[in-house]
Amino acid sequence: MKAIFFIYWLIMPFYLFPSGQMQIGDIVLSFGIVVFFSSNLLKNKPLFAKRDASLVVFVALVLLINSLYFLLYRQYSTFMRSTMFYFFNLFLVIIFRDLSVDKKFVRNLFYLCRINLVVQMLLYITGLAGDGRSRYIGTLNNPNQFAYFIFASFIVMYVLSVSGKYSVKIRPYDYAIVVYLIVASASMGVFGGAMILIVANLVFTIPKRKLPGVLISLAAGSAIVVAVLGVDYFNDLFIAGRIEDREGMTIRGYFEDRSLDRVYEYPRYLLFGAGEGAHRRFRYPRAPEMHSTIFSIWFYYGIIPFIIWLSWIKGNLKKMDMRYLPVVIAMLIDAMGRITQRQPFLWVIFILIYVCNNSKEEKAVSVSEN
Q1: At what angle do helices 325-336 and 293-301 cross, to 10 degrees?
Q2: CA-CA distance, 66 to 68, in Å (whole number)?
Q3: CA distance 181 to 16
């Protein structure tokens, strides 16, 4: 099962089909899901860890709510497709929870993330993944997906690096690749989150006596780069233009830009849920879907499933070490304006924080040797 997961992780960023459809990596993991649960059933093992029981309940409520709205609106493709995303990631959580008890497996995940970053950088340098757009998309379908992939890969590396349990360390070229590719994607929110993690990683991993010198060196190096390239170079970067475009945007304007205006247009759905589909039934849709993990889950499924989902997150962050707080803050900021619940990173990162934060290994299922 570990080999299947590693293959999935390596080919995950290679999108061959339109967004919302199964990609080649998803097909590989689907095969792994069948292998994993077949082995569990044959060996009479528990299907999931007790720690994930709340997530199982949440996904069951997702199925119930979307099924009811499907019967009401008769739009199978939207409601049921949304439901499948949650089931797929639930299976991913169950499998990764089991595999994460293997220290070597988790350490190798760090190196796989580094490989993915280097591959994307090489593709950028060679132009093999470029299509002439002002915002770089790499091997994914849009620049926001690409930026989130780079950012989330760096989060995984950060969590494992600051934990001190896996003998891994982020190198200067890792920082350079992350910053350069995110700038190329012109994703402002991701860029801010990456800067938070880079500073946090320096603070938590560099000895205190060396930290002032490192920060001074970084500041001096940045000043030299600006002096050599010139201010106009950075003003010409597309990300700089996007920052200027967002200046003066009000909170209401931001909500409308992310299609979150339906939160205050239809507040009743925050109580019992609107279902995740048939988006055109809402007035003034700036985009078909709400671009916010937090508000979308609350709005689509109501207060009770939302609280259950939060309880699963809280269970993984219980007694969390302060070293992981920058990750939670960065993910929270990003989740306010991005749909991240469909991506494997959101779920994997919470489990990694739990694993790194707890010395006792989770003993739920043990078919990792398959």
Answers
A1: 60
A2: 5
A3: 20
- Cβ burial of 261 (10 Å; 0-12, 13-18, 19+) is buried
pLDDT of 240 higher than 60: no
> What is d(CA 331, CA 334) in angstroms, rounded to the nearest whole number?
5
pLDDT at 304 over 70: yes
Structure tokens at 137: 């998309």
**Largest interatomic CA distance in the chain:** 65
Placement of tokens 């995940």 in the chain: 109
Give pTM, 2 decimals. Answer: 0.85
Q: Among 13-27, 65-79, 111-125, whose mean pLDDT is lowest? A: 65-79
d(CA 80, CA 305): 17
Whether 47 has a pLDDT exceeding 70, the answer reads yes
Place of tokens 């919302």: 20
For residues 176 and 265, give the distance between their C-alpha atoms in angstroms, rounded to a whole number.
Answer: 43
The answer on pLDDT for 243 being more than 80 is no
Q: Can you tell me the distance from the alpha carbon of 82 to that of 77, in angstroms, rounded to the nearest whole number?
A: 8
What would the 3-class secondary structure string for 149-173 be?
Answer: HHHHHHHHHHHHHHHCCCCCCCCHH
User: Long-range contact list for 162-168, CB < 8 A, 24+ apart?
Assistant: 162/200, 162/201, 162/204, 162/205, 162/323, 162/324, 163/323, 163/356, 163/357, 165/103, 165/356, 166/103, 166/106, 166/107, 166/110, 167/107, 168/107, 168/110, 168/111
Neighbours of 238 (CB within 10 A): 16
How far is Cα of residue 66 from the mean position of the Cα atoms in its chain? 23
116, 104, 114: which is closest to 167 by C-alpha?
104
Residue 59: how many other CB atoms lie within 10 Å? 23
| Tokens at 11, concatenated | 């080919």
Q: pLDDT band for position 362 (50/70/90)?
A: very low
CB 6 within 8 A of CB 108: yes
The pLDDT score that the predictor gives to residue 6 is 95
